[in-house]
From TrEMBL:
Biased composition (Basic and acidic residues): 389-399
Organism expressing this protein natively: Streptomyces spinosisporus
Protein name, as recorded: MFS transporter
Upper lineage: Bacteria, Bacillati, Actinomycetota, Actinomycetes, Kitasatosporales
InterPro entries named among the record's database cross-references: MFS, MFS_dom, MFS_trans_sf, MFS_Transporter
Domain Major facilitator superfamily (MFS) profile: 209-407
Positions of the UniProt region annotated as Disordered: 387-407
Swiss-Prot/TrEMBL keywords: Membrane, Transmembrane, Transmembrane helix
């Protein structure tokens, strides 16, 4: 049984890694994509907004599909589509081809994100201890690798398809092979329990899930602020060189990897509530340092603190949703995942509009305040009493013994 779980954990961690690398290769080469297809500055936001919108559609669709299909099968199908869509973005020549590739990427990535986190929540329940942050640490590591490969492609002036093809050629077969060992979260009896839970709690699900939805949204507003505005902030506001302005995002990804690598230990030692509160305070402090920083190096210190703080919020939000609805965790994760894309859609335009109309320094205080609101909802991350009367989840036999390949 232990070997099944270990293989399931390793294969799922690889999926998170592959997705981190894929996403980084896409978002860090946006200028090159824009040049290749001749996308105007006015049209670019339309393409960028379409991806998270379609990802939200994909996440909603996944909630319905998992009523009939195992999350492991959805993940096994979605990950190749995401990788091939990335290759399609690099290989096309016309705007319509770019639109088709990005649409496929967005729809598939919504299902991919939802199903990965469903399996992560299920595995954590089977393990009986916090492991969710380790999966998101793998995502951060993949992001670092993907961003580094993107830098190499840009440095050597490689065509997009030349940069993407070797990555897809390695990750695609590896993901398909690894998918044999995914571990699903239940048997047919557990699925029936989920249906019963949905029927009984349909009127109160959103009320219970709302605090976590808000935390997810605020976390991704902060994340998109760093992703989209850190380079511009250092260069235009703090007067750094163009080369130095590329550093904060890489540092941010490294600190998220570090924080998530240590985060599961922190949850096991101090509890999820304490870790979430500390993360929110550190992230808010980071945005405050960025807002008042006199120069580029202090600004980078602020973005480093933001990464250390924000990195624990999203994984713990998914884990908390699984605890709130132990018999309907797939549906809860799928619904919660939508607010990932809501935060992404709101964050960048909000900070940009405030920066242009007011001041980018003051604009940095908006994500700071939103992250602080997380403190109000921190109790939602507390362990929930389960049906056995304890304060911790008890792994079910079906959870531990059943893999996606029938083990």
């Amino acid at each position: 049984m232990t070997d099944v779980l270990r293989r399931g954990r390793a294969s799922l961690a690889f999926s998170f890694f592959a997705q981190g690398a894929t996403f980084a290769l896409l978002v860090t080469r946006i200028p090159a994509i824009q040049d290749r297809y001749g996308v105007s500055d006015a049209l670019l936001p339309v393409f960028l907004a379409a991806v998270p919108i379609l990802a939200g559609v994909g996440s909603v669709t996944t909630e319905q599909l998992v009523k009939r299909v195992r999350p492991s099968l959805l993940l096994r199908c979605a990950q190749p589509v995401v990788l091939l869509a990335l290759l399609g973005v690099g290989a096309g020549e016309h705007l319509v081809e770019l639109g088709i590739a990005l649409a496929a990427f967005g729809l598939a990535v919504g299902g991919l994100d939802a199903s990965m986190n469903m399996l992560g929540v299920s595995l954590q329940r089977s393990y009986g201890r916090s492991i969710m942050l380790s999966f998101h640490a793998a995502f951060s590591l993949g992001g670092i690798v993907g961003a580094s490969l993107a830098w190499a492609g840009a440095h050597w002036h490689l065509a997009l398809w030349v940069s993407y093809l070797p990555v897809v050629a390695v990750l695609l077969p590896a993901a398909l092979i690894g998918s044999r060992w995914y571990v699903d979260g239940g048997s047919s009896a557990a699925v029936a329990e989920q249906e019963e839970e949905r029927a009984q709690s349909r009127g109160i699900v959103f009320k219970l899930l709302l605090p976590l939805c808000l935390v997810m949204t605020f976390a991704y507003i902060g994340d998109s602020t760093v992703s989209n505005w850190s380079a511009k902030y250092l260069k235009d506001v703090l007067g750094s060189s163009e080369q130095l302005s590329t550093v904060p995002y890489n540092v941010y990804m490294v600190t998220t990897l570090l924080g998530r690598s240590l985060g599961d230990w922190g949850v096991r030692r101090f509890g999820a509530v304490a870790v979430v509160r500390l993360g929110a305070l550190v992230a808010a402090l980071g945005f405050a340092v960025v807002a008042v920083s006199p120069g580029a190096w202090v600004g980078m210190l602020g973005f480093t603190l933001v990464g250390l703080g924000l990195c624990v919020l999203v994984p713990q939000t998914f884990a908390a949703a699984g605890r709130l609805f132990p018999n309907a965790s797939d549906a809860a994760v799928a619904r919660l995942n939508i607010f990932n894309y809501v935060g992404f859609l709101i964050g960048s335009p909000l900070v940009g509009a405030l920066g242009d109309a007011w001041s980018y320094r003051w604009a940095m205080l908006v994500p700071m305040l939103l992250v602080l609101v997380t403190l109000v909802y921190a109790r939602s991350f507390a362990p929930q009493p389960d049906r056995y009367g304890g304060g911790h989840e008890r792994p079910r036999t079906a959870d531990v013994g059943r893999g996606s390949n029938g083990l």
